[in-house]
């Protein structure tokens, strides 16, 4: 089951890259970012992590990986970060929420919609966290050089 999920996450990330005209030399790296995100998301619940925590950590891992790949391949990190979070998007959860509203199950719809928004917030927070960690690391690395010049 895990291998099927990894293959589908690679395929969906690559399809996103092709659909949005990502440079050809970066398509496999975009698929790799999706695989890493899904792998982290799948492994953390084995160790007792909740869905929100595993989503946050996997989005942060995708963000850090996308920053690294953007430096190596010299393209914007958005190419990899968006492709990497595609497998994490809670599409089925949003569908179930809308279906509950259509079927007049408003309490269930609000519950599912709230879960969807929380997962989406965890994805956004994880992406921001990954970018912030790299920015702080770069700033700390060059802080000593700036202080000596002043």
TrEMBL record:
The chain crosses the membrane at residues 27-44, 51-73, 117-137. Pfam families: ThrE_2. InterPro entries: ThrE_2 (IPR024528), ThrE_Dicarb/AminoAcid_Exp (IPR050539). Residues 7-130 form the Threonine/Serine exporter ThrE domain. It is a multi-pass membrane protein. It is found in: Cell membrane. Keywords: Cell inner membrane, Cell membrane, Membrane, Transmembrane, Transmembrane helix. The keyword Transmembrane applies. Belongs to the ThrE exporter (TC 2.A.79) family. This is Threonine/serine exporter.
